[in-house]
Structures are given as C-alpha cells and as structure tokens.
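Support request, please re-run this one:
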Amino acid sequence: MLQRKMKTRIGRSLWIIGLAGTMAAGLAMTSFAGEWRQNSVGRWWQNDDGTYLPSESWQWLDDNRDGVAECYYTRPDGYVAANTEIDGYQVNASGAWVVDGVVQQKAIAVEAAQENKKAKEAYKKVLEGEGMDGGSFCLLDINKDGIDEMLFTMDWLPARTTIYAYQDGQANVVEHVTNDARYYDRKKKWIIAGYLNNGVENRSVHFHDGTKWVNDHASWYHDHWGDLPKEPLSYDAFYSKMQSERPWVYEKITDKEGEYRSYKNSWKEMSVFLQKYGGLGGVEYDARDTESVKNTPENRQALLS
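Re-run finished. Output below.
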C-alpha cells in the first residue's frame, strides 16, 4: 500500500536542496522539513507537504533541525533500509549510514539552523518575561523557512493564542488567534480557528504567504439555521425554518427583508471562506502539531535550548 502511494506521488515536488558530495557516487540528496512515520513493516520519511522520498535513493535527513544530517537509503517499497549493506555502505538498526559502527553526519542548512537557535533564545526570553508565568507554548515552522514560530496561550485566557515570529533579531508578535478550537494544516501551513460567540459562529485562518502574515475571517449567524447549508434557503423556506426551529429568534425579527438579506450575505461570506480554506474538519489536519507544553523551566530548557 505504501509503495503504491509513493509511486503515485514521486512526481510531486520535494524539498530537496542539493547534492550530498561523494556519498553513493554523488547520488545522495539533502532533504528536511518532514518527520518519521512507522508501522509494523518499518520506517519511512514523509515531507511536510505530504510527499515521500524517492525510492531506491540515498537521502541526508536533518530530522531534529539542528543543522546536522544523517544519511539513509529508501528501499524500492519506500521504507528505510536497516541492518544491511547497500552499494557497499553499511546502515544500522535505525537506517543511518555508519562506518565502523560510527554514524556519519554532515552539516546542512547551517544558516537556518543558527537563526533557529537565535529564535529559540528570543522565545525563551519572552516566556521568562514578566507576566508570562504559567501558560503553554509550542513551536511550529509555519512559513517553512527552517526557523520556528512560537504559539503561546495564557492559562487565564485559553481562547486566545499569540503567534511570535523571529524577525529583525527579536521575537515579535505577528498574530493573535482567538479560538475555542485550533487546528494546524501540515500541507498548507495554516492555523485555522473556530469559535461561537453570542449566536455568531466564526472561522479564522492565519498563515504566512511567503512575504507577509495573512489573517482571513468569516462568520454567520448560527441561530439562523445551525450548520451552514450547501445552498441558501429561499425566503419562505428560511422563515418557515426559523418559525419552527428558532421561535425565540423569529419572534424578535421586525425587518424580515433586512434579516433575510443578512442571512444570504453571511451565507455567501462563509461559503467563500470554506471553499478557500475548508472547515475545522474539511481539510487534512494534524492536531499533534498544536499540542502545547506548560511554560515551565524544564520545558523551556528541553525545547528552547
């Protein structure tokens, strides 16, 4: 199954940034911005954009983004070879190329790695600052430049998350995400939030388009009909539904024409938003990417040092 999926996706772009020198006759490539996946058969590497590494190839992978990569070989089925010899090169139990038992490494993306280290130091200062006690945080490379952003949420204000980015040598606030539910789309690098406030259901999306931060928003009156229908209701159908299902709202309407126009406008606004971004369950999310840890000295040391 994995092999079949990989073969159909090999043609899609991979984030590959250069040749790896003499390894495997100069055929090894450097790739990062992804993570390991594993099942009962073995391990494979999945890029952040959902693509996989080419089969039967050597790849340098910096899985912890410290600027140092190890070399792995992908088998014909896409899994990483382990405990064997490939083209005269030995790989260990984790699949890393070894010489006399020593894992071989090389420095890659040094500039981004150094900047990311500075970014973490800046985020650490923010979290240690006055008024930042408690709360929780996580790191995400939202704009896919090798430098993490930080998401921070106060304990006393769980419906609001602040996004910090490392810019001009310091940690700057770039977005405030107001949310009751937050999801992160790995492929598109979107943070999508949703919340219900006084009968108004809201959706917002936050992302970096390569040059600037973008915040888009849409809302509709949840008390009108609950879930957004695929097509707007007719005037008669709208008020028939309101009278039977939302009598407490229907009784307060004095301008029926105006209320119906408001209904259609908010339906269009939210429909356009959902077509562009999807709903909270409409696109592929990985909720693990927004799991935060408590802002404690131990966690700051573990994630930001």
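Residues 1-27 have pLDDT under 50 and may be disordered. Residues 29 and 234 are 58 Å apart (CA to CA).
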